[in-house]
Amino acid sequence: MSDGRTLGQLLAQRGVSRRAFLKYSSYLASLMALPPAASRAMAEGLAKAPRQSVIWLSFQECTGCTESITRAHSPTLEDLIFDFISLDYHHTLQAASGEAAEAARHEAMAANKGKYIVVVDGSVPVGAGAIYSTIAGITNQQMLEETVKDAFAVVAVGTCAAFGGIPHARPNPTNAMPIRRLVKDKPVINISGCPPIPEAMAGTLAHVLAFGNVPELDSHGRPLAFFGDSIHDRCYRRPFYDKGQFAESFDDDGARKGWCLYKLGCKGPVTYNACATLKWNGGVSFPIQSGHGCLGCSEPHFWDMGGFYKPVSAPSDEVGPLAAIAVAGGAAAGVAAGLVHRAAKVKAKAAHTTVTVDDLEKTS
Amino acid sequence: MTAVDLLALARGPLFQIALVIFAAGVTLRIVEILVIGRRPDYAEARQGAVLSGVSTMFTRSIPREGMFRRNPFVIVSGYIFHIGLFVVIFLSAPHIEVWRAITGFAWPSLPTPLVDFLTVASIAAMLVVLVNRMRDPVLRFLSTFQDYLVWAATFLAFLTGYLAVHHMLLRYEAMLAVHIISVEVLLVLFPFTKLMHTFTLFMARYYTGATFGRKGVES
User: Fold this and answer.
1) Which of A49, A53, A141, B85 is the most interior residue, by most CB within 10 Å?
2) What would the pLDDT profile of A182-200 be if each residue is shown by its tens digit?
3) Is A275 annotated for ligand binding?
4) Domains, chain B, ranges and CATH?
């Protein structure tokens, strides 16, 4: 629970030097593409911020987002920051269960009214009276409405919470909804990805803590700092695309040489995320670097975009047989039309009578 | 509706509709012309018709000297945008993937900067031919709404493709959707307009060449 101490005090207690803290703040500020002066403001803001109460709601999700945010290879300052966030409710991470867990949620809501942040992962099923997913006897929709009512801001973490994700994939049997469709009166920040990059989550939360406002967002509600560039634009394999050098299969010479994966269905050109720059597992690698195309997991409907191995420019459905049927149909209709015209020609010829001079002289 | 939804629509059902109209329409018109046929020529042929017909299909691609001298700029522009169209449609990597999806065949692509250069050249050339059409009194008199319509449809396909590749004006996925839809409009217009000259041009040239050949006349 929040106890009134500021982040600065807590970090000092942990033996984190001011120098290390400033370095971390400038790292975060540069991640967020903020101007240099903002790094100092961020450090001051963060140091003064009280331990932020966070309520983490998990709905139709797979816990991959939590896995992502908790997996760090070495204890970093990010981990410390997360230590200093008061995670007051989180199914997977909290020790309490049952009624004690729900009591913790209500307590945090009452104690930090109007100030706490709600993090949501997973989509909310609203079909059939929202009964597809319930926690502690209430539906996910009820829990969301109840918790968000007095929140300062909502952070939808992961593609399911941001855009509906896999539960929302056709035919969407539970009528799964993204958080933004259900929360209209609070700022909702989407940090999409399946899962999202840990730095994107940490950086966004740090921004909210330090400046007390929502960072600049794109049209999908995602922080521009992390979702402003496409994977394609920042991809180290981009020069191969420009030169027209493509891997044609996952096992050919081009693939071994690390050529562009466009033809193998890489969705990098239509995907906005920071994978190509921040990378994963402490900057070790990202999917394209390991030889597989981008799936486009941070984009809406990435599950229904016509197959992971179909190039972006190609039609999403099977069109070969359709084209063949159209050509055959067109040919048949062409033959029919041609024959009709020929018949008309023959008929016209038969009906033709020669005009004689006598005919021309006829008066009536 | 978001740009991603529009892209899904453009790559999915809209493309299927456009492809069916294009493929069926073009085949219908070509087959119809062939089935109607021509009145048999009973006169004795002075020389073979086939060779003359085939060679005319190509020789008529070379402009007459007099015509070229009169307006070289416009004729060169015409070549540039037709060659540009061919290269962009058949030799750019993203488009080859469309061909692979339709026919199952694929072939090597040209480097992006080269395709890019030809696209810019084609856009400029299309503007030249449009200005010429509007300034030349005879051409202007002969031009109908359809001429401007097919010009606009072709031009938009070029322009939106260029803008999409370079992430200009709109985000890539939005511009890609607009580009695909503009091409779908072109495909739908194709069988009903002068765009059919892509195919009928060669039939007409062959016919002219073959007729001239029979008569022993140089075509």
Assistant:
1) A53
2) 998 889 999 999 999 888 8
3) yes
4) 3-25+63-215 (1.20.950.20)
